[in-house]
Write a structure and sequence with these properties.
about 300 residues; Diaminopimelate Epimerase, Chain A, domain 1; 19-stranded mixed β-sheet; 4 helices; binds 2,6-diaminopimelic acid; cytoplasm; diaminopimelate epimerase activity; amino-acid biosynthesis; DAP_epimerase_AS; EC 5.1.1.7
Length: about 300
């Protein structure tokens, strides 16, 4: 089955974007895995689906699938690429849109400098929001944050928990280049403490307004940037008293600006600003059966 796609990236987090505003989306998980596969298919961290709004108070609906084929709640770099796509393809004449996702409405706006600024909604911190099975897990307070002790990669890790609609566990490290991302990341992603798995952030504060970050993403592995991961890490750092209300997050693939004014304790949305670019357009013939199961004989 031949389909047209648009390849996009935001700070190096890359996507296959499918315009399903005129034809229904109907790919199964194995076909999505084919699109995301960097050897057998097109290659991307996530697959983004653009659909017509299903609610009168929104302009579009936005569905997100990880490279492993699972549908997820939110994607921040993808939200910027989604917005850039609909602006550039003339699917809207607005510069600010309201987009329905699996978990709430986000509001991307095209900035004069070509970046996109997104209201990513309210962060949530209760363990049940991720979910995280906190029964009997050691924890301590740090500022207005709670740190939880979890074992991963053969070591004890103290993590902050933040939901941006999707689940994040964030730990502070001395040097992201030295962080054991590929050992701790998958161990924590698949820990029984996180029934829906989790994204894992490794945060290195540099000042009260800047930090480096690496993220092992649920369903995709380490990516060059993670938008919701940047939101989660910045907000966790603010709650720990490490950052002021605006933080430049330096990911391996680019820089993201996170703003969150929550000093008065009132629930406030998180704003994510960063780049989004179309890389190329293409056609691809998706095999009926999609990508063979991992380990299956390809020949
Ligand atoms: N891997 C994430 C989805 C994509 C998030 C990331 N690409 C972003 O920019 O927020 C999850 O399973 O929750």
């Amino acid at each position: 089955m031949k389909i047209h796609f648009t390849k996009m990236q935001g700070a190096g987090n890359d996507f296959v974007v499918l315009d399903c505003t005129r034809s229904a989306f109907h790919l199964n998980a194995d076909q999505i895995r084919f699109l995301g596969d960097r050897h057998m298919g097109v290659g991307a961290d996530q697959i983004l689906v653009v659909e017509k709004a299903s609610r009168p108070d929104t302009d579009f609906r936005y569905r997100i699938f990880n490279q492993d084929g699972g549908e997820v709640e939110q994607c921040g770099n993808g939200a910027r690429c989604f917005a850039k796509f609909v602006f550039e393809k003339g699917l809207t004449d607005k510069r600010s849109i309201r987009v329905e996702t699996m978990k709430g409405v986000i509001e991307p706006r095209l900035c004069d400098d070509g970046r996109v600024r997104v209201n990513m909604g309210l962060p949530r911190f209760e363990p049940e929001e991720l979910p995280f099975l906190c029964q009997g897990v050691s924890h301590l307070s740090r500022g207005t944050d709670t740190l939880w002790e979890v074992r991963a990669g053969g070591q004890d890790c103290w993590v902050s928990l933040v939901s941006m609609g999707n689940p994040h566990a964030v730990m502070v490290v001395g040097d992201v280049d030295e962080a054991r991302v590929s050992e701790i990341g998958p161990d924590l992603e698949n820990s029984p403490l996180f029934p829906r798995r989790v994204n894992v952030g490794f945060l290195q504060p540099l000042s009260r307004s800047s930090a480096r970050l690496r993220v092992w993403e649920r369903g995709a592995g380490e990516t060059l940037a993670c938008g919701t991961g940047a939101c989660a890490a910045a907000v966790a750092g603010m709650r720990r008293g490490l950052f002021d209300s605006a933080v430049e997050i330096q990911a391996r693939g680019g820089r993201l600006l996170i703003e969150w004014q929550a000093a008065d304790g009132e629930p406030r949305p998180v704003y994510l600003t960063g780049p989004a670019a179309i890389v190329f357009e293409g056609e691809v013939d998706i095999p009926e059966g999609g990508l063979p199961a991992k380990g299956a004989n390809h020949v």
